[in-house]
Each structure stands twice: as C-alpha cells, then as structure tokens.
Amino acid sequence: MKSKLIGTLIVGGLLFTGVAYAKDINMKTVPKNVEVKAPQPPKIVNDKDWKNVTKLDLSMKYDFNTSVEGFVADNSAAYAKEATDDMKEMKITKDKYYYYVSRAYATRNGLDIMKVKGVALNKDFDNMRSLADIIINEQDKRMKDIPKKADHKDINVVIKYRRDASDREIKAIEYMKELTYDLDAAINGWKKPKYGFSYQADGDKIKEIEAFIEGE
What we know:
S-layer family protein, 8 helices, 59% helix, elongated, mainly alpha, 2% strand, disordered N terminus
C-alpha cells in the first residue's frame, strides 16, 4: 500500500512537472502582445534614377566635364557640330570624319572615368562606348593601305592611300549624334527627345541601334 502511494505521488509529480514545463515553454515561444507584421511588397526600383559615383583624383586636372549633366551635354553639342574646313582636325587631316573620330576618343576616355549608378543611364553609356569604338575602329581600317615604309605623318601620303569612310563609320556617327541628343534631353530637360535611341528617354528604337552595334 505504501509503495503504491509513493508510486502515485511520483506519477502525479511527474505529470505536474510536465504541465508546468509545457506552460513555461508556451510562455517563451509565444510571447504575448507581439504584433505579427504582414510581409512587405518589394521596393520598386525606377530604372531612370541615377547617381554620379565617379571617384576623381584630386591631384589631376580633367579635360572634360565630370558632372553627368555636363558630360552628356558636352557630348551632345560636340556630335551635333558639322565638320568645317576651319576646324583644327580638318586643317591637320583634310578629313571631315576625323573630327568625329577625335570626339569618339574623348567620349571613350571620359566613360573610362565616369561611373554612375542607374540602370537606364548605364545602358546608354554602354551604347555610347560601343559607337565610339566602332567610329575609331572603322577609321583605323581606312589607313590599312598606307605602306609601312611611307611617312605616316605626311598628310599628302595619308590622303593618297586613305580609304573613303565606310558606311558603318558614317552610320555610327549619325547614331551617336542622335543618342547623345536624346540622352541630353532626358538628363538636362531643356529639349524633347526625338530619335528614340535612349533608354533614359524611354526610346522606342533602341533595338535598332543595338542591332547595328552587334552587326559586323
């Protein structure tokens, strides 16, 4: 009888301890007055937002505008110009297309330094770089026929052997004019985009310019 009573007390004690432990667990795992927050929808990123994150060497003097607004505006103005006989590039090379080649070098060098955060703007900058590369590469092809032993600094020799500008070079210059115009309109807002080649300006002909870039 005594052993039975002790057994009952032990079982009862275990049950009581188990209930207390369960209550303690419940209190710890389900705190009272905790507000359950609904999951938040993902933030919508605007592709047109941009930020200039260029890191400049303060010990250097740059020969181009390092603000995004200025860089874009200067490129637009440069490619919009028509090459004339009184331009330095024309006097030296007697080649109106070389003016745009010199601009292409300047564009590419500037893009090597300019760094921006912004989906649309980076895509436009990538296309500007690609067009600059095409202009430069096509110009190099024009010089292929100049003999290696000839004086390449003699403009008369260059004119004698220089090929005509290719259709691809001429078209790349035209696209660069139009892309930089639309990008300038989107960034600086003083004119309306009109060609449709800029991501930043919501262009509707971007596939055309990128198909040209990918072409041979």
